[in-house]
From TrEMBL:
Protein name per UniProt: DUF1624 domain-containing protein
Organism: Paradevosia tibetensis
Lineage: Bacteria, Pseudomonadati, Pseudomonadota, Alphaproteobacteria, Hyphomicrobiales
């Protein structure tokens, strides 16, 4: 206890910094792939690919689990309010910067409640759980994770409510981390950290000193917020000129769309000739009406659904279904 009575600064667990550094590296890999996919520099849409979507969810879950662990380590004995509000202000400012930046670059799909917005809100919501029994915190966290599997309502499709969760059709945005289910991962992290701190494992982890090869991960873990804010502008600064150097009508975008369209059409039981003609019709209308920005939205928005339905109606009338 300090002379002033303020809570003592908690010890730092190097393993947490290493794990956060691993999550940062994984995030950079994902965002690099996202940028390459968005600019049609790789022949895959990672926003719909099952493997990449799983990778994204693992990264997000890992980050939020570590938020809960870090809150427990920093404020488990007593909330250090000055430190808490300083960190909260930095994260909230970063969230505002992300919203402004993405609104300028991607006005139709800007980030209004992404990972930084979620961390700021979740950090506030999690404070009471630092005093609850770990089993109760874990049970409530499991509830947050499970409830969205059984309850959805169209009212939550509205962006003004989407940050809560429970949507049937997600709104058009490049990043959305709603309370349900993701706050559950923070609570699981709190419960896990409290259980570890109450066990002999805590002393072992506190005494662990990483090898020199892991030092870069520790540095990245400790500067995770700064890295998060600057890595995308750096990636875009490298990738955008490469993408912009191609002709405006680069065939990779058309070829990728037609290939995916034909594969889906054939999976629905249609013949190859019919699917080729149908998808050729569809891509002609997309190019003619300059609908790429709508069609390539990372989530299925009402605007995208309407555009797809209109194209399907026109091309179905033009290309009759094969007998």
């Amino acid at each position: 206890m300090s002379v002033t009575g303020a809570p003592a600064k908690p010890p730092r667990f190097a393993i947490v910094d290493v794990l956060r550094g691993v999550a940062i590296v994984a995030m950079i890999v994902y965002h690099c792939a996202w940028d390459l996919s968005y600019f049609q520099l790789i022949p895959i849409d990672i926003t719909v690919d099952d493997g990449w979507r799983l990778f994204q969810h693992l990264i997000l879950g890992g980050f939020l689990l570590l938020v809960g662990v870090s809150l427990t380590l920093a404020h488990g004995n007593a909330i250090r309010w000055r430190s808490f509000w300083r960190r909260f202000t930095m994260i909230a400012a970063g969230a505002a910067a992300v919203t402004i930046g993405t609104y300028i670059l991607f006005p139709q799909t800007f980030v209004f409640f992404g990972i930084l917005h979620a961390i700021a809100l979740f950090s506030l919501l999690a404070l009471p759980f630092l005093r609850l029994p770990p089993w109760l915190t874990a049970a409530i966290g499991a509830g947050f994770l499970i409830v969205p599997l059984f309850f959805q309502h169209p009212a939550f499709n509205d962006p003004r409510l989407a940050w809560i969760g429970f949507w049937e059709v997600p709104p058009a945005t490049n990043d959305l981390v709603p309370i349900f289910p993701w706050f559950g991962m923070v609570l699981v992290g709190i419960a896990l950290a409290r259980l570890v701190l109450a066990s002999p494992l805590a002393a072992t982890l506190a005494a662990w000193r990483p090898a020199a090869v892991l030092r870069p991960l520790i540095v990245m873990g400790r500067w995770s917020l700064v890295i998060y804010l600057v890595h995308q502008p750096i990636l875009l600064g490298i990738i955008y000129p490469i993408a912009n150097a191609r002709p405006a009508d680069a065939p990779t975008r058309v070829d990728s769309f037609v290939s995916s369209c034909v594969a889906t059409c054939e999976q629905n039981g249609n013949g190859k000739d019919h699917c080729t003609a149908y998808c050729g019709c569809a891509v002609e209308r997309i190019v003619r009406d300059d609908l790429w920005a709508v069609i390539e939205q990372p989530t299925s928005s009402p605007e995208q659904n309407a555009a797809v339905a209109d194209i399907a109606k026109q091309c179905t009338a033009t290309i009759p279904t094969a007998p």
